[in-house]
Amino acid sequence: MNKPPAAEKAIPIDTTSLYEKHRKVYVRSVSGIFDNWRWRFVFLTQAIFYGLCWIDWNGRQAVLFHLVERKFYIFNLVLWPQDVIYLAILLVISAFLLFLVTAVGGRLFCGYACPQTVYTEILMWIERKVEGERPARMKLDAQPMNPRKFRLKFTKHALWLLVALWTGFTFVGYFTPIKELIASTLAFTLGPWELFWIFFYAGFLYMQAGFLREQVCKYMCPYARFQGVMFDPDTLVISYDPERGEPRGPRRKTVDPAAPKQGDCIDCGICVQVCPTGIDIRNGLQIECIACAACIDACDDVMDKVGLPRGLIRYSTENALARHYTRRDILAHLLRPRTLLYSGILLAIILVSAWSLAVRTPLKVDIIRDRSTLAREADDGRIENVYTLHISNTDESAHRYVISVDGIDGIDIVGERIVEVPPASAKTVTLAARVEADRGRRGSTPVFFEVKAQNHEKIVTREKATFILP
Hints:
Elements: H1 33-52, E1 56-57, E2 60-61, E3 63-66, E4 71-74, E5 77-79, H2 84-105, H3 108-112, H4 115-131, H5 134-142, H6 147-172, H7 178-186, H8 192-212, H9 214-220, H10 223-226, E6 237-240, H11 242-245, H12 270-273, H13 294-306, E7 313-316, H14 318-323, H15 327-332, H16 337-358, E8 363-369, E9 376-377, E10 383-393, E11 399-406, E12 412-414, E13 418-421, E14 425-435, E15 443-453, E16 460-469
């Protein structure tokens, strides 16, 4: 009888995870110059966002992207679907402005004006007010659930949801007039798409600024991945000075003169505790750094307490650290081919766009010839073609327009020649053009309709159409 083969000895397999285990970051509060600037930007951006939709302008909302009317109102500027080119130009300007800021100062947008950063700061401020500072929050999370913990957590999340819902409501208020939205909410008659976007936007804000926080910057935001192509050795970034700081270690009041020289870094770890993404800036620039400069404020405060000069962590450049540039040298290297190229392109696009808006005629005309009847003989014996004119008044004032036609000798308009269009509105007019049968060649002949404002000679447009002679 054959014996079964002996069981082979299992070979251990070494596995490596490509994903870092998530550790909750408990951010320590900090105060200083850059923290003050960060909060100024929080107040500025939110004052604009929450307040702009409540400003009235010429009897309507000053800034409104009205999807139902298919018109964008930006103070005196009224944009129609035909003006989508200006949206593309705005996106190009924003992109080049971001490139320029990144080439000069790194991720300044991320640290001071990015919505993820701004709303994370707001929700973290609420968290600190409700649950306390970093040690208190860590202690609270380590406790089992009890009435006090439940009360604090419930209060915090209720306030988070309140901020998120109001933000979502304000966001939708830029696409549906905010006052109409308020009235519909009070009457419980909100439309399905308004409800969806209010809760969708609020839900994402609550989740990303309340829970995901640094994970959005580290894993979800693509900006961190392609910022490297916009950096160079003369880009201002948050920098730790290893020549001055190393070797790091606690500083004693009595130092043995024979002991090796010690660096200025006392290895307190506060620069790590205040970092919203949980990195150690002393390990060098990392893609997770959002340039919020909280570590600079924290380190400067520590340096003040131990009696050492500020600037162990500071805004500097790779070349400045290696070549010991002065502040004047750093500023001189900001003007370099990359930044000059971005600045030149950005300035050119802005100037061309401003010129285009300045000379833009606030009148648009679309002409469609009636295709059901190509041509017909009228009662007076002339040949008649019927046209539909869609006249859009993109101005903030009402205008009376005079319609005329030329292109064939003797062609004339039969019917209404003067049309009044209210401000920022459109009107469709159907009219007929007639001409003697022997005045033109048979078949299709180009003609031109001219629409001109009575009270403003410069508001005029000519559109091409065709006239059919049988």
